[in-house]
Amino acid sequence: MRISDRFIMALRNLWRRKSRTILTILSVVIGATSIILMLAFAQGISNTQKEMIESFQGLTTINIMDNSENGMVDVDDRMINQIKRVDHVKAVVPSKNIYLDFKIANTEDYGLDGSISVIPDETLSLLDPDDLDWGNIPGPNEEDKVLLGANSEASKIIDYGDGFSMEPIGDFDYSAHQYFLRLGWKDETDDDGVNFGNEEDPMGLNTEDSNKPKSVDIPVEISGKLSSSSFLGGWGSYISESTYKKLKEEDEKLQSPSPVSYTHLTLPTKA
User: What would the pLDDT profile of 109-153 be if each residue is shown by its tens digit?
Assistant: First the structure.
């Protein structure tokens, strides 16, 4: 029997038993679709887990903290040099978080999330253009420059009267705005017209510190934004040591200087 005869016979059998043929085709289609969907679902979960881990500093980054309640680490040059000699360690990044507000000037409709960390100048020199989504890497001697973290983003502030929420803006035009860092505390609530005594010195204590300002705004520029593949990941943004020194000088002029910020180590490793 020729191959063409066998093919014709198969078609006749399929046509003769239409219901069985339809059920067989449906079974194959459903089975193949189920397998494809399960593989896609598993791949989606895997990608989601990977993206989540990368958003918390990446798959090749190690954060070092001690067992104390505040997680503070005493960092000195000897410790940094010891860790640098560990196999597969690409760099040692000691960072110090600063307690301040990162604000957009001349608007109350938008805000910036994320903390500000100071990192050594030599860490900035380890960055290359591939570590950026856009912009430039600030130089060691460039003051008033902020490098946005990969997960830092602008948000629209929605006021509900008794509260507010922040909705991220994916296409925010960073070049169209000006920015500043606010040290200290400034009461921006509306005045209700009810005042008791001297608001500048409510306890009646005319001390030297009471004559100092409560807050100060330092204009800054956004130099660029890190990509998710950079070893400087996370939610925070970064400034150089020279910018940090300027902020500390201004902070010491306030009534209540910011408390000592905590320090931790980040170890980008070679994949």
Answer: 888 876 788 888 888 888 888 888 899 888 877 888 889 888 888
> Within 13 Å, how many C-alpha atoms sit on residue 238's CB side?
29
Q: How far apart are the C-alpha atoms of 118 and 104, rounded to whole Å?
A: 20
Question: How far apart (Å, rounded) are the C-alpha atoms in residues 155 and 174?
Answer: 12
Tell me how far apart the alpha carbons of residues 64 and 263 are, in angstroms, rounded to a whole number. Answer: 10
Q: What pLDDT was estimated at residue 92?
A: 77
Lowest mean pLDDT among 115-129, 218-232, 253-267: 253-267
Distance between CA atoms of 62 and 268, rounded to whole angstroms?
Answer: 6
Is residue 89 within 8 Å of residue 269, measured between CB atoms? yes
CA distance between the termini of the chain: 61
One-character DSSP codes across 111-134: EE-S-EEE--HHHHHH--GGGEEE
